[in-house]
Structures are given as C-alpha cells and as structure tokens.
Design goal:
Structural class: alpha/beta
Order of helices and strands: HEHHEEEEEHEEEHEHEEEHHHHEHEH
Mean pLDDT: 88
Strand order of the largest sheet: 6-5-4-7-10
Radius of gyration: 23 Å
Strand content: 15-25%
Number of helices: 12
Length: 379
C-alpha cells in the first residue's frame, strides 16, 4: 500500500524528494528511503537531478521511470483509425492516422490491418517496439455486447462485427486489447482532464454525425446489459421519425430516426437549408444563424429532459461537433429551453477537452490499467 501511494504521488505530483514523499505519505524518513530504494531497484522510479540552493546537502529528486511501461490508445471512426503511444507517465511518444481508404478493400482482415498500421506507425515515431506495450484501448462507435462479444449499435463500421473481434485484434497485435464505446471514453477524458473533474454523477451527451451519451453514476460508467446504455440517438422524440428496424435503419449517421435525426450534424445543416441558408455547408455556418441555433437548442433541451428525468445527474456535459460549433451561445439557449421540461436541474457545461476526447479517454483508460498492473509490488 505504501509503494502504491508513493507511485501515485509521483505520477500526479512528481518529481519529489525523499523528504516530500515522506511528508505526503506520512512515512518516516527511513521508511521513505527504503521504499524509494525498493522502487528504484524494481525499475519503477529513477532519480532526476537534485534540489539545490538551500542550506545543507542537496536532496535527490525521484520520478516515475517512463520506461517502466508503454501503452497504445486508438480512436476509430468511419474514416479511419488514429493511434497514440505513450509511456506510463502519460507522455505521448508517437501518433499516427490511417485512413480507411489507404487499406485495400479486398484484404480479408482489412480492419485489423488498419489498426496494425496505425499502431506500428505510432510505435515507430515513438521508438517503441510492439512487445513493449502493456496494453491497448480502442474506442469505437457502438459497444461490445458482453454476452456475444459482437460490436453492436455501429452498423456503419464495416469489418468490425466479427464474433471474436477482441481476440482477433489481440492475436494480430500481440498485446491485450480492450474495446470501449467512444462516447464512454469521451466521458473518461472529461472526468480526468475536463468539465467533469470531481463529479461522480454526470452524463456526457455527444452530438456529432452520430448522437450518444455516456452515463457515470457513483463514479462508474454504466453500460447496460448489452452495452447499449446511452444509445440515445435511437430515442423517439416528437418531430423525429421512429428508428424502426434497429441497427439496419441507422447504417448511416443521418439515416433512421429518433433524437439523432433532430440534432445530428447532417440534420443541423439540413435545417439551415430549410431556413433558406443554401450556402450553409458546415455545422459552424448553420449554427451561426440565430434561427437555426434557437431551433437546435429546443431540440437538444427536449432530448436532454428525457435523459435527465431517468438518470438525474448532477451535471450534463455537451460534447461533439454540434456543441463545439454552437459554443456558449448554444449552451445558454439549451439551458434556457430546459426550464420546466424536467424536475431535476443539472448544471450544463461544454466539453473542456482540447483535441480528440475519444483518444484522450482511451489513453487515460490504458494508463490506468497499466499502472494497476505495473505498480503492483505485492508479489
């Protein structure tokens, strides 16, 4: 327990001196010295200079040894795969993007090939070998059904629906693989680095080409019996066609029905054209119009009210292309429209993640798993 406490401190607050490690853990100086010597011998920490400029001998500084472990994180979308490789401190060593079109369509394992190319590209840039990886987390639309092992709720990802998807990828890549819903990973990113820090009960609502939610209650992600908790894009709402036919009706993000057909980015652009903005070819251009922004806010508030009535979160975080394009003006309108629609009144915030929140969440998850394994000195 003392070893893990010291390692966690060095991750979050390092580098630290032996004295400071002792103060923060409540350990005596001799015990802290023995602990750091043991961790250094195990290759988990290393010295990184010393503190000078004060009376007495200089004190050595200790930090996590970045070579103790490396992890890979991937974000999958309809256009391709993005991979990042990082050391156990969280420092990103290399990143690579492989577009789907770069992999021949007649390859029998096209999906695995795209993933392998992205990972190998990131490894090469980071000067890391595959066998050095301690784990890999892949974020995809949809979710793995824990009963069947198949990816559900993502029919627009061809090649990702094998019965033994997780095992096949692990075999190709030579390392354990975790597959997680992309919106769930965006919520992980917000909890570590963004708008949901310190909040145990929140919902992240992702509004992009696709629409989904991640539900965090008591600090834990809630996935549901088939992994489908938060698939609010299918949710029936007034003014939207029903998403009958399940996955088949949603083979494209702008197809099918439900909440997604009201607020997904293709629908926002179409709404602007209905209002006469024939040149509005982007979400940003569409949401620059007051009338479009106000209608999208009404639609978002209606969908959020249904979610909040069931989950009663303390906070709702808006993420994805539509909230990003609408910014604070859209958030404030949604908040105003929400009045009276549901009894609970959670705080409403915009995402605070810079860059790709799915990749950030995948990296955070991979690091947490690796640290749990590598920092275990009980054996």
């Amino acid at each position: 327990m003392n070893d893990r406490a010291a390692l966690d401190l060095l991750v979050s607050r390092g580098p630290l001196t032996r004295t400071r490690v002792g103060e923060l853990t409540g350990l005596s100086k001799p015990t802290a010295s023995q602990l750091l010597a043991r961790l250094e011998a195990a290759g988990l920490v290393r010295t990184t200079g010393s503190v000078t400029g004060r009376p007495g001998p200089s004190a050595r500084l200790y930090e996590i040894n970045p070579e103790a472990a490396q992890v890979a994180a991937l974000a999958v979308d309809q256009g391709g795969v993005t991979a990042a490789v990082a050391d156990i401190t969280g420092q990103v060593l290399g990143e690579e993007r492989v577009d789907t079109g770069a992999v021949a369509e007649d390859l029998p394992d096209r999906m695995a090939e795209a993933v392998a190319r992205a990972v190998d590209g990131a490894l090469a840039k980071g000067r890391v070998r595959r066998e050095q990886l301690h784990g890999m987390v892949i974020g995809t639309p949809g979710a793995l059904d824990p009963q069947t092992g198949r990816l559900r709720y993502a029919p627009h990802l061809p090649g990702w629906h094998a019965r033994a998807l997780q095992q096949e990828l692990a075999q190709v890549l030579g390392t354990p693989v975790t597959i997680e819903n992309d919106v769930n990973l965006a919520a992980v990113a917000e909890r570590y680095d963004g708008a949901a820090q310190g909040v145990d009960d929140f919902v992240l609502v992702w509004v992009d080409e696709g629409v989904g939610a991640a539900i965090v209650l008591g600090g834990q992600l809630r996935r549901g019996a088939t992994g489908g908790a938060g698939e609010i894009g299918y949710m029936p709402l007034p003014g939207a066609p029903l998403a009958r036919g399940g996955d088949r009706s949603a083979a494209r993000p702008d197809a099918g029905g439900g909440f997604q057909r009201l607020v997904g980015s293709p629908s926002v652009i179409e709404l602007a054209r209905q209002y006469g903005a024939t040149e509005a070819h982007t979400v940003e251009a569409a949401l620059a119009r007051d009338d479009v922004r106000e209608e999208v806010a009404r639609r978002l508030a209606t969908g959020l009210a249904a979610v909040v009535a069931v989950v009663d979160p303390r906070l709702v975080v808006l993420s994805g292309k539509v909230p990003q394009a609408g910014g604070e003006a859209l958030r404030a309108l949604v908040e105003a429209e929400f009045t009276g629609l549901a009894l609970p009144r959670p705080e409403l915030r915009l995402s605070e993640i810079v860059g790709d929140p799915v990749l950030t969440g995948a990296l955070r998850t991979a690091l947490a798993d690796a640290r749990h394994a590598v920092f275990d000195t009980s054996g």
